[in-house]
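Sample entry (88 residues):
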Amino acid sequence: MLALTARGADVRVVYSPMDALALAVAHPDRRVVFLAVGFETTASANAMAVLRAAALGLTNFSLLVSHILVPCAAYFNAGRTPTSERVP
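Predicted structure, serialized as tokens:
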């Protein structure tokens, strides 16, 4: 991020993907990339921003996604793994 800023990029911290989407709406001449980092619980909010951008016809909004899946601890305690059977 520092390297991008040094090259003139406008790097901002926002609270949510919808805040990044608002920036894309306000600045249609600029590309807005939201760095979507989080657990599987944040994936739905990021997906909603993508759906909203599509509905608005925005072409300047995108996500760089790095979600992490946390397996259910109960499966590990039972000696099972999420890959050995489906997690409910």
